[in-house]
Amino acid sequence: MTTHLNTVASEWFKQRIIGVVLIAVAAFVILFARLFYLQLVEGERLRHLSVNNRIRLQDIEPSRGLIFDRNGMRIADNRPAFDIYITLKDARPAEKTLEKLAFYTDFPIEELKEKIKKGRGRGAYKPILIRQDISWDTLAAIEVHKFDLPGITVNVKPRRHYLDKNGAAHLIGYLSEISANELKSGKYPGSRSGDFIGKFGVEKAHENYLQGKHGGRQVEVDVRGRVIRPLKTVAAKPGNNLILTLDQKVQARAENRLSGQVGAAVAIEPDTGRILALASSPAYNQNAFVDGMSAKAWRALNSNPDHPMVNKAIQGTYPPASTYKIVTAIAGLEEGVIDQDTLIHCPGWFKLGNRVSRCWKKGGHGKMNVIQAIEQSCDVYFYQVGLKLGIDRLAWHAKACGLGTRTGIRLDREKSGLIPTAAWKKRRYGIPWQQGETLSVAIGQGYNLVTPLQMAVLTAAVANAGTRYRPMILERIETAEGETVFQGAPEVTGRLSMTPTTLALVRRGLFDVVQGEAGTARRIRTRGINISGKTGTAQIIALKSEEEEEETEVEDRFKDHAWFVAYAPSESPQIAVAVIIEHGEHGSSAAAPIAQDMILAYLRGEKKN
């Protein structure tokens, strides 16, 4: 009995041993099969995931090209900026990490969550930008608590900085973050989400040269996403530097004199078309666009009735007023309706049919020739010249002077202005041109519209004996190492329609405007420098009678615009200027002193006497 029991027990034990062995073998088979699958079948993919988990790619943003004036004065620079990123895979639990980040930095937690929401879909190991350009205090707080903020990294990158926050704002332009539509457009190759691109002015016009190329860094990280060591680096390529034709002394003088007023000032080198200054007032703070502007500040900027975002030098269109008499004089002389000996009597008014058109000088100028008419800006003289010419011949010469068409300056949104013709009015209004309208056009009123830049180009052409140049902003482009990759050159776009005799008569009249005893701008006569120019007062509203004009107090917004165009020195011009002050009333008092100051800043580097 005992032997039988021992045999049964032994048999049971063997079966249990076999069962355990079979289970162990099965386990090892399963484990081996799993290892085989993981290493041979899935090995490459898992190895790739492992490397991605340990090795990360970091973007290196390039430095944007710098911008200088013609004398090497730096206008646009770069400064270091610190941005915060979160890598969701390393920040687990992300919710807790964000709460700690908000606590240490005082960032609104909802704002951080919104950034995460927008950045989802980029991949668990792709850093998401959650805050740009943090302060030094915030940076210090993050560094102190970095071991408590897994997945949070701070990257330093160059950010645009304008040395004079309002300096040449409309010419240089500004940067802003690239939009989704701009990224999709294909116009910005090499740009990525979060990059800043030129949105206006020179910054936009030469974006491809300025932006540079991204680099990258391969780094090894620990399980918390902290960098252990760099493995490989491909340096970013900085953007090219721009050297402009701008003279910062003249630009600053123009902006200083325009401060508190609405208007524009342009200065050009007559023999080349190089822009020396291009100022528009009021201006705006370019750094605000890069550093971050609130919605409230943006609304205030756009709703400002003085339109600080409009470049009035190329986008502002105004009646040219008496500066247009340069055109009327050229047309009259070239068409033979007057010559240097033609005398026209000005009693202070001119009657055409039942309409009486007055001269600005109520008592009249008496008998005048063309030189005297330019010097004293006699309206009656030019009424009669315009009437003899007719609107279409007058318009032809105006267009030959470059008016009514864009100058071709390489900046966005330049306006063409308007030079009316009989056919234009018929198309626009469906009614014929009237002779009385020619009187207004002949003295720069009526439908005439020009930009300050167009008048500067015309003035420069008179100064250089008749050649119109495309306004030139870019002198050259250089690499960061100083190698020239582009060199600008003057470009002729046309010639004024006048003979040397006509030129001499017009230039003599412009000389006498400042230097003559009866010149309308004689108050800016300057010791040692002869300035030639032409004043203008652009009427905004027309009063019905002389008595009404005397009795009416005109609101500021209805006051006349003040014009002055000039070049100097008269004998060998080196600078041509056009200035307009909105509602400045008189060109001789509001605009001419600004032009004089710009001329002296360029020729002498000093303020006026």
CATH architecture of the largest domain: 3-Layer(aba) Sandwich
Largest sheet, in brief, is: 7 strands, mixed
CATH C-level class of the largest domain: Alpha Beta
Mean pLDDT across residues: 89
Structural class: alpha+beta
H/I helix tally:
22
Beta-strand residue fraction: 15-25%
- Proportion of helical residues: 25-40%
What is the number of strand segments?
23
Low-confidence stretches: 543-552
Q: What gyration radius follows from the Cα positions, in whole Å?
A: 37 Å
Tell me the name of the CATH homologous superfamily of the largest domain: DD-peptidase/beta-lactamase superfamily
Tell me the overall shape. elongated
Structural domain tally: 3
Provide the CATH topology of the largest domain: Beta-lactamase
Determine the N-to-C terminus distance. 139 Å
